[in-house]
Amino acid sequence: MKGNDLMMIKKYSIMALAAVSLALPATGLAVAQEAAPAQPQAEQPMAEQYSDDTLRSFATAFLQVDEVNREYTPRLQEATTPEEQEQIQAEASQQMVSIVEESDVTVQEYTSIMQAAQADPALAEKLTQYIGEASGGAPAPAQ
Q1: pTM summary value
Q2: What keywords sit in the KW lines (predicted)?
Q3: Residue 2: CA atoms inside 13 Å, Cβ hemisphere, count?
Q4: Staple 57 to which of 5, 28, 101, 104, CB 3.0 to 4.6 Å?
Q5: From CA 108, how far away is CA 93, in angstroms rounded?
Q6: Which pLDDT value is given to residue 99?
Q7: Is-contact 83 34, C-beta < 8 A?
Q8: Any idea what DSSP says for residue 38?
């Protein structure tokens, strides 16, 4: 994998993770995550913890979340008051969570995959491949 691909995955994973995380309190998942005991890291590489079907579903959801991000970023930048920014951000986050919930991964799995991709170059490479496939063979989205 090229360094640019890994940097792009990290950039988008941070953006999408932040967007999805902002909406978690509204879905009640934040409380469930806080209450869940920490699980020890498995010894196998992170890329092997997820099935190919799960990663493909993630890739499809990732592209749709990216579309929402592209749609709302200009609106957020044009907002003139903090209240307007909050409202736009909440709207975008709600759409992003809905997209993830409609995919074959949960919001928690989506977030977990995003975090794992930041730490595991093999997983990031696999996701780059699946994102490219899901986008019709084009490279992963760039901004």
Answers
A1: 0.67
A2: Signal
A3: 6
A4: 104
A5: 15
A6: 95
A7: no
A8: P
